Amino acid sequence: MPSMREPRAMMCGRCGAYLTAPPGARSVCCALCDAVTRVQRRTSGLEEFLKGLIYSLMFPPQAPPSSSGDWLPASYPREPPGRKRALLVGISYSNTKYELKGSVNDVNTMSYLLRKRFGFISDNILRLTAEEGDPNLMPTMKNIRLGMRWLVQGCNTGDAMSLVVHFSGRGLDKALCPLDFEASGVIPDYEINETIVRPLGPGVKLHTLVDIDNSDTVVLDLPYRCRILSRFGQWKWENHQAETPKGTNGGLAISISGCRDSQNTRTTSASPPVVGGAMTYNFIRALESEPSTTYGRLINAIRAEMSPEPQLRASEEFDIYRKPFLL
């Protein structure tokens, strides 16, 4: 029987969207329709079945959001014609004690890299920064949750897809800090895992680049961590699989992060000086130096420029020196 301290899966009482209730929560707000759904106490199997039967007869479920994206704000990209999508989040926390300089620069450089090097088109890239000039594109908790749902539309259809997520901001205790985290709270890694990792079907590949403090376990919470033991090809995967599954539904999820939980990185020593995250800068620099690279060579190239070691995590094990890095 699930522990009372585990997150609970539930459905939105208004639109039927999948929700995750943190341990101890009494209610959950839906990112799609803003409805607040109460977290019911755990009941016996028979009682749950009877309640569900009665509820389904009295309140037939509404249709889920369409794949055409009709449930999205007008400023969000519609269902793209291509199979490449990217969610780029840059959070500066301006005029607060948590202010970061260069997060928007990180989004700009990542957007350029994806378009010029990997064939993404602007209509397939969703940018959430405070400089977009649209309330729906501010990197708030609500908009980040909505952006993640936009990213994984149709990712269980069996079609080949390449998804990219880039976070540049702050992290706190295995969670992402949105722009309004002081008022709205943080987005925990298990919620992000269930939103953009668990739905990934066969043929779908997700890459996440994390440029956040405490970023080793923040964001995807993937089960396998790759330890590179030397620069001469020695490496091994460590299985951190918990009792609760954290993998995909047949797809592949990979995360590259800028520091361990106990480390912090947010600056770059580039010459001339570049205002932005060290992880983003060195990731792009490594790809520009060796476009046709593997995961192992890419991580080693970043390691050569950063004292906090970059971390590689994945939903499954693979040979890092044979698998080419492709987005």
If you had to describe this structure to a student in words, what would you say it looks like?
There is one protein chain. The chain is an alpha/beta fold and 327 residues long. The protein is built from 7 helices and 14 strands. The strands form 3 sheets. Strands 5, 6, 7, 8, 9, 10, 11, 12, 13 and 14 form a 10-stranded mixed beta sheet that branches. A two-stranded antiparallel ribbon has the order 1-2. Strand 1 and strand 2 (18-21) form a beta hairpin. The longest helix has 16 residues, at 103-118. It is globular. The model is unreliable at 59-68 and 260-264 (pLDDT under 50).
For the residues shown, what is the average pLDDT?
Answer: 79
Count of individual beta strands: 14
Shape: globular
Order of helices and strands: EEEEHEHEHEEHEHEEEEHHE
Multimeric organization: single chain
Low-confidence runs of at least 5 consecutive residues: 59-68, 260-264
Structural class estimated from helices and strands? alpha/beta
The helix content is 10-25%
- How large, in whole angstroms, is the Cα Rg? 20 Å
Query: What about the largest sheet?
Result: 10 strands, mixed
Helical stretch tally: 7
Distance between the termini: 40 Å
Beta-strand content: 15-25%
Comma- or semicolon-separated keywords:
327 residues; alpha/beta; two-stranded antiparallel sheet; 7 helices; 14 strands; globular
